[in-house]
Design goal:
Bound molecules: nicotinamide-adenine-dinucleotide
Strand order of the largest sheet: 15-18-19-14-13-21-22
Structural class: alpha/beta
CATH class of the largest domain: Alpha Beta
CATH topology of the largest domain: Aldehyde Dehydrogenase, Chain A, domain 1
Largest sheet: 7 strands, mixed
Distance between the termini: 68 Å
Number of domains: 2
Number of helices: 15
Number of strands: 25
CATH superfamily of the largest domain: Aldehyde Dehydrogenase, Chain A, domain 1
Helix content: 25-40%
Strand content: 15-25%
Amino acid sequence: MQKILNYINGQLIEPVSKSYLGNPDPSTGEVYSLCPDSDAADVESAVAAAKAAFNQWSNTPSEKRTRIMTRIAELIESNLDTFAKAETIDQGKPLWLSKNGEIPRAVSNMRFFGTAIEHFASEAHPMGDHAINYTLRTPIGVVGCISPWNLPLYLFTWKIAPAIAAGNCVVAKPSEVTPMTAFLLSEICIEAGLPAGVLNIVHGLGVKVGSAITAHPEIKAISFTGGTKTGEEIARIAAPMFKKLSLELGGKNPNIIFADCDFEKMLDETVRSSFLNQGEICLCGSRIFIERPLYEKFKIAFINKVKAELIVGDPLDAATKTGAIVSKIHFEKVLSYIELAKQEGGNVLCGGNAVKPEGRCNKGWFIEPTVIEGLSYNCRTNQEEIFGPVVTLTPFDTEEEVLMMANSTQYGLASTIWTENLTRAHRMAAQIKAGIIWINCWLLRDLRTPFGGVKSSGVGREGGWEALRFFTEAKNVCIKL
Ligand code: NAD
């Protein structure tokens, strides 16, 4: 059975404890590899390696950092098939999605931040003819990056790339649920000539490795993506230590459909925004609000399309549109929310059940894409994050009403609006409490734009200069002329 190893000080090594966690393939339910069950001792050696590497890396000219990061991007790209298959086996998403979405995006992350650093500049503030201020932006030192299981390599590199581009050294932890592609990345970093200690990857549980990273006094900034409860725990420990914090947390995003929308475009995209990656994307629109005159037409067309197109099955099969749910625990959580929705008076229009595909995936964790109507906007099903292939339909009559319902959750990550009325689109965009608004599209991403949420969806922004600013400290220098 394949053993994943930690990547510390440029070496692939076993955890100090020598113990491992079984890592299952969600499409079969069988353990297929072993993930290090690391602890604070491994984090300690990773921090020591990062500290030792910092002086040289932070003084490495940006062109050289760019060269190495571009090389990492090229090597991931030339191993696209290996990475895509590994991600699919580890996470459960369809292979076409790993190949066309997840892994190419990891390549883009490395390339984008690797080259962005060559254009990163700081400001100057002249004070007439008697003084000038300029801002130095220096790397922080050793920083921590902790990522979740839903888009494993995509989100891992989204943090690591700006951190190392800016000259920091990193102690990173991928999710223990999906550690494989982070391990493949460590092999690539060695091949690309990334100096030892610049990136250290410590595998293991959140409560052991994640909390050791959070609490380590030498780690001065934490970039975290994951659940809101975990974010709270990290803030509780890190805030009194005055660490810089970027927290990208949960969501319960509204998808608002007005009767004047371009129906066909909206329908195609709403199927995607509801169920892509089994609904396990923090940006998925899980609460669909439909203007009442369009409600019945939308409901029928949506259900027909979901039933006809979203084939659930073996993630390695090209025909599969909906793969496996990432873990048994999460599978049970999603099913329990479907039960809750029924208890709350919801009417399941399609799906609602676990699926046992024939053949090799017979013991895997699969759930039918599920559409529910008849729930109040403020019931638990409509307020809590499910993070699976489950959406609810709710009719609305006025802009005021839908705004109130859209803004009623503790979350504020993203929102989608479908309308051909430009004035209304701008008016709604300004009033929805979320960090990201898509109008007549979904998940259309430009890596330069600020990315993040408000309320319990997080603190801080990633992407573009925001990320490079997060991973640097600004220092003002004032010179009297
Ligand atoms: P999670 O919070 O359980 O775990 C995320 C990471 O934190 C994992 O690596 C985990 O091991 C680690 N961790 C767990 N406990 C920890 C602790 N006490 N201290 C430090 N680290 C700890 O989240 P998950 O279940 O892996 O991911 C799903 C969640 O992530 C959903 O809520 C989803 O909305 C959110 N998410 C948000 C975004 C975003 O950009 N806002 C993107 C993707 C996923």
